[in-house]
Amino acid sequence: MKDIQNTQDTRNVDIQKVGINNIDLPMIIQRKNNTDQVVSGVARATVALPRNYKGTHMSRFVEVFNEWRTKNLLGVDIKGCLEKIIKKLHAQSGEIKFTFKYFINKKAPVTKLAAPMCYECSFKGQIYEDKYKFILGVKVPVTTLCPCSKEISEFGAHNQRALISVKVSYPETEHVWIEDLIELIESCASCPLYSLLKRQDEKYVTEHAYKNPRFVEDVLREVVVKVRNHPVITEYEVECEAFESIHNHSAWAYKKEIKS
Amino acid sequence: MKDIQNTQDTRNVDIQKVGINNIDLPMIIQRKNNTDQVVSGVARATVALPRNYKGTHMSRFVEVFNEWRTKNLLGVDIKGCLEKIIKKLHAQSGEIKFTFKYFINKKAPVTKLAAPMCYECSFKGQIYEDKYKFILGVKVPVTTLCPCSKEISEFGAHNQRALISVKVSYPETEHVWIEDLIELIESCASCPLYSLLKRQDEKYVTEHAYKNPRFVEDVLREVVVKVRNHPVITEYEVECEAFESIHNHSAWAYKKEIKS
Amino acid sequence: MKDIQNTQDTRNVDIQKVGINNIDLPMIIQRKNNTDQVVSGVARATVALPRNYKGTHMSRFVEVFNEWRTKNLLGVDIKGCLEKIIKKLHAQSGEIKFTFKYFINKKAPVTKLAAPMCYECSFKGQIYEDKYKFILGVKVPVTTLCPCSKEISEFGAHNQRALISVKVSYPETEHVWIEDLIELIESCASCPLYSLLKRQDEKYVTEHAYKNPRFVEDVLREVVVKVRNHPVITEYEVECEAFESIHNHSAWAYKKEIKS
Amino acid sequence: MKDIQNTQDTRNVDIQKVGINNIDLPMIIQRKNNTDQVVSGVARATVALPRNYKGTHMSRFVEVFNEWRTKNLLGVDIKGCLEKIIKKLHAQSGEIKFTFKYFINKKAPVTKLAAPMCYECSFKGQIYEDKYKFILGVKVPVTTLCPCSKEISEFGAHNQRALISVKVSYPETEHVWIEDLIELIESCASCPLYSLLKRQDEKYVTEHAYKNPRFVEDVLREVVVKVRNHPVITEYEVECEAFESIHNHSAWAYKKEIKS
Prior knowledge:
The structure is a homotetramer.
Chain A: E1 15-30, E2 36-49, H1 58-68, E3 72-73, H2 75-88, E4 94-107, E5 114-128, E6 131-145, H3 147-152, E7 159-169, H4 178-186, E8 191-192, H5 199-211, H6 216-228, E9 235-242, E10 250-258
Parallel strand pairs in A: 1-3
Antiparallel strand pairs in A: 1-2, 2-4, 4-5, 5-6, 6-7, 6-8, 7-9, 9-10
Helix pairs in contact in A: 1-2
């Protein structure tokens, strides 16, 4: 059978990224406590395609994913998987990204009753010009309580669910656990969220949020201060979106920085 | 050219609904104040297909929509559009549904500054056994403030954005304006939402919500009491989902009733 | 602390369904081959609330889910979980629904290379008037190739991804495996989908689809004929949506039936 | 009333972007044919916030949008709106983005019957270091027919809906019409999509796609060649995602370039 993909292309256009997108994959993630978690991931994998080749070979991406999905995934395995893809596709550079829902057993603040709380996380690996870069992403839902509303009102203060999205990079020789990054982020909000709260807990989180009012600007700055001071993080991107309880739109703040 | 759709089918299966789905259409909606609003709609249109026909003619649905889209749509025009579809498809029964974002210029509670506020609405028309039924749907975002949190906490109370979805039916001879149904629904929450709020307004909505705590159960019941007492509404379906600011899941309540 | 939820309500409104929605949960599903699969589920759980009670107790739903999530879920466990919820909430009736992505290792048609293929599935249990009902749902992506396009064109025929959504009920004493229901549904399309296809496989699926043209009406009828003839299924609901490759809208067909 | 936002912040964190997100707005777009189109937009507006200020004033963004929404929007008005926002917020830089569904009356290829076809478009304006940049975005759904499948199969070829997303920049003194950019993009696929196709048209598009097989790589390169040769475009970003009819995942290609 003819291999159309391998034929010559004369349009003189290098393609920066080509591959497969939105493929569902079961994955195994290593947890901080040394156990594993099976998660349901959605992946993208791409390579760069030089101008003289007509096409890439899409099925090979699936073959490598299939081979890798029974391994425990961490930053180091993401690199192995990406290197295999680049080799199998005869490419020079490439990128893979997995997005998945990760569960942490979280204790209520007063009763200490535990239940799984879900966080959307992502692993991204890139190889460009022979250099590997790993990016860990977490999306952490929290409460924000408005400082202005608290200040100007006789009683109460509007509060709402907000989503803090953080992406961080660090050297290959280091490691940041999802669990630790989430804890860092949750400490920056008016209050963390929980799956299971009894009445004593509800009293606690209500009063805790009221005592810690935060604009999206405050949340963003608190996170920035902590990741700036983090010993291994070299780059970060932080976004905070508050789904305002008094509007049908969001308050939103964003910052990206490469630490020098 | 052969008309495959018109050939005989021998599998002995009547199809209840067949047609087109998720088609984008510009539409003109008549407003309460006698002006028009051009909206961006998404539509589904279906007819019933008897067991002996292989297929329906999908392009005819688009032709009727195209013909109808320059008219002012209200319940009565939905009927005309549906009758035309049923006739053109040689069918006995059918159904059309339009979902669209509708804007109302809404004044802030204290400063009275106005800005457009958006509501997702829907028109649904059905003809089964020669009987026409029209269903008006609105989704109204509001604030709910938790009565339990207020009661047990020394200060503050968790509150959040919630979405009240209401569908109502009424006789062909009657009419319910979107504007009036939204107003009825907003009065049932801890507080309505606004696009534009200055500081005096923010103080007002914060305190108003605090003085009017509502569970999803309360919101649902308030709406039910009002639609039950409404002079022309004959059937209703009410759903309230509160995107809890202390959890990453929702509190949810639902009721459906045909008034006797 | 005062239990506001337990106070009296005088608005005279029974609530049909009240509880929690969109909660993420890790779950264990029993597979046909006697192994387990950990999946990431999204759940809703509700009970009926009599008119005289102000509110339900939302945290108890989470407590029951938390207790049940380490069990192997099948129809029979859904019933146990639902009965526990109803008991713990002092309710008469209730409903739970889990939606999750389920992976099946699927072999390519010619090379027989296997890779995981993902299907969105759901388990729903209802108890109303002391009667338990279980509903299994699967969403199966397939290829449909248009019979009309094939007939009228000199070469080629438009084809596209379509999604067949099927819900079935059967008595408590019976069992239908997800794997078997998916196989039944895939046999009704122009061709099933695969995660991994090498060139020989691609030739096969292209030609197989061309030899088996199907409108959404055909796909729906094929499924209906098979579930009608299924020995244990008592009720079904079938929907087929084809994401037309020549339009930006879908062709859509639907049928629901209670077998007598 | 105290203006909390105006108080001092000592955390030493500049915020790159802060403002409102996901606000629904009715907008007026100027069409190529000199008429207007009212569209339903979703907007984000942000400014940069220096390290010494605690917060921005969210309501002012809404006030400017409200003032601007009755104007005919084009690149030049986007600049005016953004300048007003930056001025009103006492900021140095800022960004606004509108996303909206735009309808073009499109004729079928043979019968020439016309019906509205919908495209998701976006306008983005940025001012950083006193320099204005405008970015026009369009998402164009098309058909792609697989060259490999056609080559290796005795008859037929898998084809599917694909989405080509293109963003382009050009100098303030120039203008690119949405209509022209869409036409350029549609010419790069195996076949454009249509809302209304009668049988003669369906024969045409089926055969046209079969005669013009395109991988996502081909589509991407065709678009790149055309925007590279475009007289006024200075920067572009092109993405093509094909929702494969034989897989449940996509083939995907991407390229970004600043013309030198």
